[in-house]
Each structure stands twice: as C-alpha cells, then as structure tokens.
Amino acid sequence: MIALETPLTSIRGIGQKFTSKLKKMGIETVRDLLWHFPSRYEDFSQIYKIGDLIPNQEATVQGVIEEIETRRAWKRNLTITEALLTDESGSIRAVWFNQPYIKNTLVPGRLANFSGKVTAGKEDIHFSNPTYELVKTQNHADITRTYADTNPIHTARIIPIYPETKGLTSKGIRYLVKPILDNLPRLLDPLPESLAAQFGFPELRRALHDIHFPESLQEALRAKERFAFEDIFILQLFNVTQKLALREKRAPAFPIDIPFVKDLVSHLPFPLTFSQKRSLWEILKDTAKGAPMNRLLQGDVGSGKTIVAAIAALHTAHHGYETALMAPTEILARQHYETFKAFFGEFEGGVALMTAHEHKISYGKHLETTKKKNELLKELQNGAIKVLIGTHALIQKNIGLPNLGLIIIDEQHRFGVEQRASLLHRKTRNATRLPAASAVAERAGEDAETLPQPPASGRRDSATEKIPHFLSMSATPIPRTLSLTLFGDLELSLITELPKNRRPIITKAIPPQERAATYEAVKAQIRSGRQVFVICPRIEPREINSDAPERISFSEWQKLDVKSVTEEFERLSKKIFRGFRVAMLHGRMRAEEKERVMREYIEHRTDILVSTSVIEVGIDVPNATVILIEGADRFGLAQLYQFRGRVGRGAHQSYCFLFTDANSKDVRARLKAIVEAKNGLELAEKDLRQRGPGEFLGNAQTGMPDLAMKALQHPELVHKAREEATRLLKEDPLLKKHPLLKERLGAFQKEIHRE
Ligand code: ADP
Ligand code: MG
Q1: Which pLDDT tens digit goes with each residue over 481-513?
Q2: Rounded CA separation 617/302 (Å)
Q3: How sure is the predictor about 98, in pLDDT bands with cuts at 50, 70 and 90?
Q4: Distance 267 CA to ligand 1 centre (A)
Q5: 186-201: pLDDT as tens digits
Q6: Fold topology of 249-431+466-495
Q7: d(CA 471, CA 483)
Q8: 10 Å Cβ neighbour count for 503?
Q9: Residues with a beta carbon under 5 angstroms from ion ligand 2
Q10: Whose CA is nearest to atom 13 of ligand 1?
Q11: Which of 16, 178, 329, 626 is most buried, judged by most C-beta within 10 A?
Q12: Which of 578, 648, 575 is nearest to 607 (CA)?
C-alpha cells in the first residue's frame, strides 16, 4: 500500500529514468511528489466539435485516429509525425516534431483527445504539438461512447502545469501523480478537523486530489488555500510558542528614569521626531518590566533609528547593565560608534568598537584609546564598558559582558526567513543563569535548540533565569501582514516620518534624450564637491534563461549582477565620467574588499560609487547628493524608495535620477508615486497591491520565502491562523492532542535551523 513516506523508487512502474530526474528536484517520496503543486492550470475541460474550431483557439477535441505516419524531413535529425483525427463534424490534422514514438500510442481506429492551440496554416487549420491521450472505451471501434466514463489526465479537463525541470515535463509529472492519487489511502490530516470545517477546507486527501486534478478552478483554489493555511498556521504555532516560551523568562528591569532620558534628549542637536519619541517610549516601557523585551524597530533609511537605540543603551547603562549593538558590516558598526561619540560625548561609561580591524574604547569625548583585542576583552569582562558595538560575527564569538541587559541588532533581517530564523533561536533551554556570552549567542541565534520548551511546564524556577532584552532594527518596510507572518513573535515600533530638517529630494524620471544633459548636471555636482551613487539595473533572469526563470540560482544571479555592474563601471569610468574617481561595489567581492571600497567612499577618496542593487542600505554619507538609478522601471517602488534614501541626509540639496528607456504612461505613473509617497511602508503596500508579491520584492536575490508569498496572497488567513494558533496552544500547550501538528512544528523548526 502506498503511504506518504513511500520512496518513489519502490513504486512499480516508475523507472529509474524518472526517479533520478525527480531526485534532482528534491522529490524522493510520495509526499514530495504530491506536494509538488501545479504552478498553474490550463482549462481544456470543454470538448469541441472539430467542425467548430477556429484559428488560435485553445481547445480539446475528441475523435478517432484515421491515420498516422512518421516521415523524415529533408533536414537532418528531424522527423515529422502527422495524424488525422475525425469526429462526426469533420477532421483535423495534428503534427508533432521529433516524437516518432507517438505512432506507437495513437493507433488508427482508437478514440483519442487532442488538446492544444489550433494553428492556421496555408491550406487548413491543424494542431501543432498538441497534448494527446487515448480514451478508454469498451470497444475500440465504438466511438459513440462519450468520454464521460473515462478518466483523462492530460486532456479534456483542467490540466495542471507544473514547475518543470529539463527532461521532466508536466505531462510526465501528471502521469506519475495520477495513479498515486487514485491509490492513496485516507490520510491523517494535521489540520484539526474543527478548523478545517470552520474554513470549509477539504480534508487532506481530497485537497491533494483537488490541487492536482480539479474539476473546477475554484476547487483548485480552495485546495491551494487549504495548504497555504496549513503552512501559515504552523508558522504561527511556532511564533506563538516562541512568544509563550519567552514569557516564561525573566529579564532585568530598568525603571524609566524620566529626568535622565529628558536630559539626554535635550542635549541632542535636534529635536526627536514624534515617532522617534513614541518608539523610544515603547522600548523604555518594555525594558522597565522584568519580562524580556522582544521588539522590532522599523523605520525608513535615515529616519533616525540609531539615536533611539542609543538612548535605550544609555538608559540601560544608567541602570548598571551593558548593551551589545551588532551591525552587519564594519562600516555600519563604525558609524554607530561615531554616533555615540558625536551625540553622547558626556557619557563616560565606556563605549567600545570591536571589528576585525579596529578595537577602540572611548570614555567620554576626549578619551579615546586604541586597544589590542585582548585588552579590550579584558575591559569588557571587568564591566568597564557599557556599550559594545561591533559586527555580528565578532560579538557573538568573543564577548563576556558580566551584566548584559540589552542586545540590539541592526539591519539584520531583510525578507529572509533565514535571518529571522536566527533571531528566533533564542535561549529556550531550561538552564539556570547563563554566562552572558552564551546568552548573546543564543538570543542572536548562534546556538539553537530544536524545540522550544513547552511554556506550561510550570516547575521551573524562572526567577533564577534572566536573559537580556532584545531590540532589532530594520529599514525594510514590511507590510503588516508580512511582519505578522515572519516576525510574529516580535512587538513592533514604527518610525513613520523623517526628521524635519530634511530637504525633499528632487526626483526625476529621465528619458533617453535627456541623459546627456543629466550627466552634465551630475558632473557639476561632483565639481562642487558632492558625491554620487549609481545603482545598476537589475537583470531579469528571464532575459537569459527563458526556460525556467524561477530556477536561476543565487550564485548565477550574482554573476549576472557582477557583469552588469562591471559593464556600467567601465562605461562610466572610461567614458561618461572620465577624470573623476569612480569605484565599484558588488556582492561577489570579498568582505574586506567591500569594506575598503565603502570606506574610501565615505572618506571622499572617491566621487562615484557604482553598485548593484544589493548593497547595504544603512550607510550614511551626508555628502552624497545624487543617486542615479539605471533601468529604474525594473525595480519595485519600495526598492526605489530605499535607494533614494541614501541621499538627502546632509545640508545640500539632493537629487534622484531615474533612468528609464520605457517612457510609458505606466512607468510615469509609478515614478510619480515615488515622488508623492510619505513613507516607505505606504509605498510597499501600494506596490504590493499594484504588482503582487513578486514585484514587491523587487528582486529575487532576497529570496522571498515561499511562506511570505503565501501570507501576502492570503492576508486574511494570517490573522485567522494567528488567532487559532493562540487558542489551540492555550488549550493544549504541549500539543498532546495534536501529535501530527506537533510533528509538523518540530520539522519546521529543524528546517528553519538548517537555514
Ligand atoms: P537609520 O534609521 O537609517 O538608521 P540613522 O540613525 O542613521 O538612520 O540617522 C540618519 C541621520 O539622521 C543621522 O545622521 C542622524 O544623526 C540624523 N537624525 C536622527 N534623528 C534626527 C532628528 N530627529 N532630527 C534630525 N536629524 C536626525
Ligand atoms: Mg541605520
């Protein structure tokens, strides 16, 4: 009997040829195969009379094979198979190239279906390469029998089209899936029955059938929704479990010292924006409690997240605890360190910078010393340093802060579940007080447990166990639905406006005929001492791999990116901007190389930085006043908005030039949206509505996970799933009554961990 775990190799009738191809797609068991869902459907369900066909119609016809023959074309290596199909209304020819074996199947006298596009030739209409299928009849000659009592797979129905690989067609997959589905026993359904009933979802086996061989497109949609819900539900179970587990933990409490905070704020050279204040307040309220904070601070590039985080850090220090601030790159780490020095020069508690190349401590404005790494580590251990700033990797490996109270992670998660995953793996083990270093590692994802401890075990003396508060910062505008999905266990603080002193960036779409004049204007900017960013066009995979654009790998993509940026660099440095200092940056460069190029740019040793679209958003170069975006129409709105945020940070007027060759109405309308948008989140949502999740993402390099995609397509399901997950875990915290769910959750956690 077939079970979901049955390996395909042990099923009779599936040859080695198939199984090895399937394996390449990661399909090894019945489950893998059945969960390889169609990407779309073609509706061939209606059978037309041959006499009624019109050119270019997509249709299915049914008739008797009158004749069939294969001949060799005058070109070498080409065979042509031609069949004539007849029903009571007429006859039609079908032609296939290089498939002589069709002759073995389509025997004259048999009843068959052809599905495909009707092609108009010089003399007649015919099918070119139609899908064909024999129709079973009691008596082959008896063509009066209708197809109703047969069970077609490839024709005369709604036909599933699968994501394909070389040598394995949709037809091949259908051929494998159908008999397995027909012989599948009733399956245990991880979704609780009551839930499925509430949403009117079909039960599992039925849903599998419907998603592969639906009777109607609604049926397919319903089934798709059921599977999407299941995945989202598991993710929400995971989020809620994490949240409950965290609730069991204690953290040091830092009662808000209002005069202290007011004093810090009043010494800043600018007033905080309203939402900076609100976010700061939310953070301080969280850390005042003895429960661990778990918060995401989200705000556009340049909205001033660092200051907010810095004040939280100083407030933590005020209570005698340390803060670790981790940035993804050395440049960003140094930038944060400089922020502390610039704005909080009075703070004498010890702020340290630790990267691969630098080890510094400053105790107040004028007391900065460069240290050996060992010395720095020693000072960390004796508690002299209150704020430690560095790159993720380094901090996680090295530190031993005696009283770590707050962990801040900057720009860590874009859309990736991978990054998110690492944040999820905080300490959940039933241990007594941990050394601070491993607490950091665990909260930041170094050392993860597979399953979180069940929240309701109750016996633990949780008071002994204190873990640091946790704040993560991100400039990626994530619509609410998505953040609820991916970051469902985080509280959210939003900075929704930019500081008031910013001059609006002049944004213009530049059609080809204005290109030369624009370059001249840019040169004038450089001559007056400003700097320029150039973003290279995004390469669409379908431009180079029309076969299977979705299958292009990350590294292939990176290569393309490098090609694009190299070409642009050559063009600009040798021709357009000859005589200026042009530098290039892309994802394939070594980290050190990248750091060097960025540093040179920040220090104004180069004028123009040509980069791919994947380069860090966080860098703050107030002297850069121009950003040129090549192929602007290829980017999502949200992404364009992010790019633009790199300029407009200083006192000088800034410009964003969107180069586009596609000067259509649509492009103009979209670019207009950029000019008008108040914040990135608003744009992200607009983008999402207008162009769907794929476009919203802007480019596949970020690898928007499948789950996020589903969440975006079914926002209502996300909220429902969240509610239901909470309810279920309240009733059954250990999922004792739901072993299948528990198993799925465990598998999910393992998977996340592996990423
Ligand atoms: P991000 O949110 O992108 O991390 P930063 O924290 O780097 O932004 O801040 C960008 C710039 O804005 C910095 O130079 C910072 O000093 C400045 N800034 C922050 N808050 C304000 C404010 N309220 N008014 C004016 N400038 C501010
Ligand atoms: Mg930042």
Answers
A1: 666 666 667 788 888 888 887 788 888 888 888
A2: 10
A3: confident
A4: 15
A5: 888 888 888 888 888 8
A6: Rossmann fold (3.40.50)
A7: 15
A8: 11
A9: 618
A10: 304
A11: 626
A12: 578
The CATH code that applies to domain 506-678 is 3.40.50.300
CA of 306, closest atom in ligand 1: 6
Name which residue sits closest to atom 25 of ligand 1, judged by CA: 499
**Nearest C-alpha to atom 17 of ligand 1 is from which residue?**
304
Helix (H, G, I), strand (E, B) or coil at 362: strand
From the CA of 301, the nearest ligand is: 1
Return the CA Rg of the chain.
31
pLDDT confidence of residue 258 = 96
CA dist 79 and 97 (Å) reads 6
Mean pLDDT (whole number) for 445-461:
38
Which CATH superfamily includes the segment(s) 46-156?
A: Nucleic acid-binding proteins (2.40.50.140)
Q: How confident is the model at residue 698 (pLDDT cuts 50, 70, 90)?
A: very low
Q: What is the pLDDT of residues 644-695, one digit of tens each?
A: 888 888 778 999 999 887 667 777 777 777 777 666 777 776 666 665 554 4
The mean pLDDT of the chain is 78
Q: Which of 264, 268, 270, 623 is the best mutation target for the ligand 1 pocket, counting ligand atoms within 8 Å of the beta carbon and taking the most? A: 270
User: One fold for both 46-156 and 249-431+466-495?
Assistant: no
Q: Which ligand is nearest to the CA of 649?
A: 1
Q: Residue 84's closest CA among 132, 156, 117, 142?
A: 132
Of 276, 297, 301, 303, the one to substitute when testing ligand 1's pocket (max ligand atoms within 8 A of C-beta) is: 303
362, 289, 287: which is closest to 318 by C-alpha?
Answer: 287
pLDDT in tens, 10-22: 887 777 888 888 8
CB-based contacts of 118, cutoff 8 Å, min separation 6: 53, 54, 55, 56, 57, 58, 59, 92, 125, 126, 127
**Ligand 1 atom having least distance to the Cα of 270:** 24
Task: Tell which residue, 474, 477, 473, has the closest CA to residue 677.
Answer: 477
Q: Per-domain residue ranges for the chain? A: 46-156, 249-431+466-495, 506-678
CA of 44 to the centre of ligand 2 (A): 53
One-letter identity of residue 28 = E
**What's the confidence (pLDDT) of residue 458?**
38
Give the single-character DSSP code of 607. Answer: S
Q: How far is the CA of 374 from the centre of ligand 2 (A)?
A: 29
User: Do residues 519 and 527 make contact, with C-beta atoms less than 8 angstroms apart?
Assistant: no
Give the integer Cα–Cα distance in Å for 392 and 89: 73
Query: What is the per-residue pLDDT for 394?
Result: 66
- Nearest-atom number in ligand 1 for the CA of 411 is 4
More confident residue, 432 or 356: 356
What mean pLDDT comes out for the span 423-450?
36
Instruction: Collapse the DSSP code of 645 into the 3-class scheme (helix H, G, I; strand E, B; otherwise coil) and give the result.
Output: coil
Q: What's the token pair of residue 223?
A: 């089934």
How high is the pLDDT of residue 84?
92
HEC sequence for 290-346: CCCCEEEEEECCCCCHHHHHHHHHHHHHHCCCEEEEEECCHHHHHHHHHHHHHHCCC
Q: What is the pLDDT of residue 288?
A: 96
CA distance 127 to 712: 39
| pLDDT given for residue 255 in this prediction | 97
- Give the CA angle between residues 575, 580, 581 to the nearest 5°: 115
Q: Residue of the nearest CA to atom 9 in ligand 1?
A: 304
So what's the pLDDT on residue 166? Answer: 67
- Residue located nearest, by CA, to atom 18 of ligand 1: 304
Tell me, what's the pLDDT at 268?
A: 93
pLDDT digits (tens, 9 = 90+) for 580-633: 999 998 877 887 888 889 889 999 999 999 988 766 656 778 899 999 998 888
- Rounded to whole angstroms, the Cα distance separating 487 from 472 reads 11
Residues with CB under 6 A from ligand 1: 270, 272-273, 276, 299, 301-307, 475, 499, 501, 618, 620, 649
Say how many C-beta atoms besides its own lie within 10 A of residue 386's C-beta. 24
